[in-house]
Amino acid sequence: MKKIDAHAHIGEYGGWAGVSSSEESILKNMNEYEIEKTILCSANYERNEDTREMFESYPKCIIPLVYVNPLKSEKAISDIDYYIGEKGFQGIKINPLRDAFVADDTCLDVVMEKAQEYKVPVFIHSGHPPYSLPWSIALLAERFPKVKVVMIHMGHGHGVYIDAALKMARRYENIYLEMSGMPMGCKIKEAYETVGADRIMFGTDSPFHHPSVEIQKVLTCGLEEEKLEDIFYYNALKLMDVRKE
Ligand SMILES: [Zn+2]
User: I need a surface site. Which of 27, 150, 187, 210 has the fewest CB within 10 A?
Assistant: First the structure.
């Protein structure tokens, strides 16, 4: 079954994580697991050139996101204008946990306004208190109803946060979900059926998780094959095609 990986990183994560990925490892995964395209961002907001280099080498395989830190607003704005405005990047990635701001903080307004201007989705890490909880991401989505917000990890490792991700996505139709790192396969089916057939996507969060593990969660979630194709492929395709409309 062909796939789009809706969430992967290129680069090194030191410290507690001790993981890294490279052009080679990403391409190897793509070949091995029928991943046609990867929605790619760097390891942090200072490494967008890593994404640009891979995108320029493999333009058909990579859908690039610009990683920004809203607390560095001047750099965030200039990076968005450069990478999206001039280099063909197709979305924005932010991580409230890593860069220490609450997901609905007003520091995000400039980023969301830019997303609205360029008509690109904003991918936001979810699932860790106090910064990146589903309720805060929902308050942001509520303030910017025209911006598509991808709640990466759909609540991540905690059942209460996963449930909140589903509840918030049911309430706000501009919230999309991505399942990497989220352990409860049955919640993928629940999202498909109760949030929306086009608002739940497969991802790996490479290099944090192995593609085969993330793939199994989708395969065993309890949905029929044609519905799995939406999750594995068509939903990400549809979301990222928005700019061309
Ligand atoms: Zn990630």
Answer: 210
